[in-house]
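Our preliminary data section would be incomplete without showing what the modeling component actually yields. Below, a chain of 113 amino acids is followed by its predicted structure, encoded as tokens that our downstream tools consume directly.
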Amino acid sequence: QVQLVESGGGLVQAGGSLRLSCAASGRPISILNMAWYRQTPGKQRDWVASIGSGGTTTYADSVKGRFTVSRDNTKNTMYLQMNSLKPEDTAVYYCKATNLGVWGQGTQVTVSS
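Predicted structure:
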């Protein structure tokens, strides 16, 4: 069974950067299709970015050019590098193994103006 644990969230000023990590256990991340989502209170969980098992990446328009998703198979970890952060990026960020339907517990990102 796959387990996912996010880390790296925190408080940052607008224009700053953060890197989120999603550590997987129970299955090699190299064979998984992975994604990042985010959610604010009272709203649905929105897709942010994906990285396929073959390495193909896709992004939501709202983060394209600012966020980069990557994967380190040796560490069995996926990352989300977030640059030029905006207050509207404030949310709980979740990682997901999309072909297994498994979610992590989430990590809070707060961007102050």
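The radius of gyration is 13 Å. The chain is about 0% helix and 50% strand. Preliminary results of this kind motivate Aim 1 of the renewal.
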